[in-house]
Structure formats: C-alpha cells, structure tokens
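Sequence in, structure out. Go.
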Amino acid sequence: MESYLSFFDFTTNYYFVIGGFFLSYLIYRILQSILSDNNFMQTIYRPRGHTWRSIECNKSLPYNIYCTVCSKLMLPLVGLFCECCAVSACKKCNRVLDKKIRCKQITWPSNKPFFHHWVNIGTASGKSGDSNEHLKKLFCSWCQRTKIVEENSNIDNEQCDFNKYKKIIIPPTCVQVDKGSICNIKSLPDDDWEPLIILANRKSGSSRSDEVLSIFRGLLNPIQVVDISSISPESVIKWLPERCRLLVAGGDGTVAWVLNALQAASHVRASVGILPMGTGNDLSRVLGWGPGCSSLLDAHSIIKSIHIAEEQPLDRWKITITPKRGRLRRGRGERVLHAYNYASVGVDAQVALDFHRARAQFLYCFANRTLNYIAYLFLGMGRAIDDGGCQGLERRLRLFLDDQREPLPLPPLQALVALNIPSWGAGVHLWSMGNEDEVPEQSISDGKLEVVGISSSFHIARLQVGLAEPYRFAQASRLKIELSGSCAMQVDGEPWMQPAATITIEPAGQCLMLRAASQSPISS
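Output:
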C-alpha cells in the first residue's frame, strides 16, 4: 500500500510540474501576443476590397510611406498597405480607399486587353532646372515594374505582360468564375507555363502560415494563395490547371492531406514542394527543404527555389483497416487511408495522440514549434511512467511480410513502425542507425517499406540522441498486421486509438514531389 501511495504522489507531482510549466508559458504567450501586436495573425483575405497589413510586417512589395488619401507621413503603428496591390493608407483613411481604389482583379474578360495595375508608391522631385515639377513613382502589382512619371500623366492604356513571373502567374483572363466561385482555369498556349499554387495551413505547428499567405498574394494572382484551414484542398484541386507546381506550407499531416486530394485528380499533373511549418517535418528533411523555415521569409527566394527544384517520385501506400467483430455487436466498417512517410502502432503513436489532444485545447493556439518540441519531450517522459497499454505489444500483434504464411517472430516491443522515408521522429534516420554496412539501402521510390521495432519510450529517447538502434526486421512490399486489443496507431503523424483489427499495407502508386536542388534558402 505504501509503495502504491508513493507512486501516486510521484505521478501527481510530475503532472503538477508539467501543468504549471505549460500554464506559465501560455500566460506569457498570451500577454506577449496582446502587447506585441503580431501583424501576421488573423488577417483574412478579402476578395472584394483591400486586405490591409501593417507597413512594417511585409517587405515583399514596395509601398508609399505617405497616406494615399491625406498625404501624412505614416509611422509603423498607424501605417497600412494592401498585401495584394501595395496601395497604402493610414488607419483613419483605409476605409475610404476600399471604395475609391480597386484592388487587383482576380478575373478579367478574355476578349479585353489587360492593363497594368499601377499604384503610387512615392514621389520624387523633378529636374534641378524645374523644381516645381513633381513626379510620381508607380509600381505595377502584377509585373512588379516601377516607373517614374509626371503628376498628371495618363498611363492607364498600357498592357501588362506579367514580366519575370509570367511563367507562374495565372492571368486574370484565364480565370473563369461562376456565381462567385472559380470553376475553371484556361491553360495558356505556352509549354513553359507552370503556375505556382501556394497552400498554407494556419493550424500547423509554427503558426507562421499567415505570414506565408501575406508575402505571396502581392506577387501572384490572389486565387493562387489559399488558406486550406478554411478552403479545403479538395475544393482547390477542382479548378487547378492541367500542369502546375504546388508549394505546401505546413507539416507532414498537411502535406499528406494535399497529396490525398491530388490522388483523386488524375487530370492534374502537379509536383509538390514543401515549406516546412510543422513540428517534425520529416518529409521536408528528406526532400532537402530542411527541418523548418527560416526566421525571415523571402517570397522571391522561395519562388526561385521552387522553380529550380527537381521532380522526385514518392511511393504511396494504401492502408486498409478491417475491425474485428465483437461477440455482442457488429464490427465497424472498413477504413482506408494512405501513407507517405510512415505508419506505426504502439507507444510512439500514443505520444503523438497525447500531443494531438493537447493541441486541441483552446489555449494551445498561442503555441509554436519550440513549445511543441517541449510538449513532446514531457509527454514522452510521461509515457515512460504509463505506457498507455503498449507493454507486451508483441503478444497482441502478429506481423506477416509479403506472401509469408507464418508470422514474423517478434522480440518484446512497445511499438512497430513501417517506414517509407529515411526520416522519423523529427529527423531520426531509424533504418540506417548502427552498422550501416550491413543495412540494405532505403529508397522513397522503390516500392518497399522498412519494418522496425521499438522496445519502450526510453528506447525512443536513446534513438533521438543516437545512442541506440531499433530492431530491424525486414524490407517488404506488403504488410499484414493482426492486432488483438486496443492500441494507439498513427499514419504520417495523425494518431487515433485503434481497436482490434486486421491492418493491411500495400502499394498504391506514386506521387510527384519536388526535391530542393541544393541547400534551400527557405530552411532554418
């Protein structure tokens, strides 16, 4: 009884310390967000009117430091500019411009010429011999050109050719709209035209996706920059042109979400690049985009990196989960998922599930990647005390490889992992750890999975710092797992509690990714 009470006291104190730490940190983050006026948070794109930002937060477009309406010098605290067209105004006058000056038009009649969208971004004195003459500095928010003209010059009849980004911009003349929604994109008769679509998830770990949305809207057609936390990838895929490149700003789960949506669009040939905004970013690491994005995001450098990136096939795996029927009730229906990184059953999935539940809490909206790593650390330590029912997993799990009729003998395990890519658990090269000379080569496009085992959460911690190696079982093209009893399971970082079931993993074709040509400037 005494030992039980001491264990109870230890567990209670442990969770009290963790709870106190998170509560203190979250209070600090709330106060910081209130006092620091985060310019990139919670700004919503407006298809009609301007989308205003503080002039100090977005440097991808030039802007006028004097208000367009009242001509007063704007300090960063009161200065605003439209992230789509670069027109600027103070906080007292910006509503006037919403009615007075149009923003960039996302669509335009194809039978009419398309003109520059000139915005006044400053003034300059005239020649020394004519000091009374004032000149305007204009900027086209489509082709990024600037020019200096006289105050009363009429330049509204100059057609725009989209200049250096014409190969990746969807011209408004190609956009067809029906009842306020995009229904089709007409392709240009140019073999080099390959539009770039930006898909960002505000709910990813770094909480910086709003910044990504902002810096690209001024360089591309605003319809090419999509917040997929409010507009699903499935809705976007419906109007994508036949050939394009996608840049997904988010974590591994967001990338998998987009790849699953693309699978249903056989008419679209889209290659996918990654701007790592999640916590682990394992697929991003493998493809050369880095473990996380840089602290300073430069939209022009990112576009260049995507343009020169090389196409890379990636295996897709179909996971079919068939629940076992209970004695007193009918079994649930079959569930089909697709995996691109890895799938696992056991304690690592249990830690991911704990983290997923913590992230769903209201206060967690103030979190960032650093807090995510700390959360994983503490939750992993917690599962060292309580394994979540993963102890003795080898007795509740039978593993069949390829066409083998006999299950594979398993040592004492708390997790079983099937790997499609070399990176796991935020950068651990699980398959190749240890004596690399004796390990078969791992590839992301060879139609094979690498199957490994993990003995405990302490084993995970040692793997993270390179002091251990996993149980390496085999490479296989097809897996069958018979699970008796309930256990945590995850696919590409998306966890859930899985009841007794038969789990089959088999090839399901390939998808097309983009591999960074060299060390990407977008990574941290």
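Check: Residues 32-42, 382-387 have pLDDT under 50 and may be disordered. The two ends are 52 Å apart (CA to CA).
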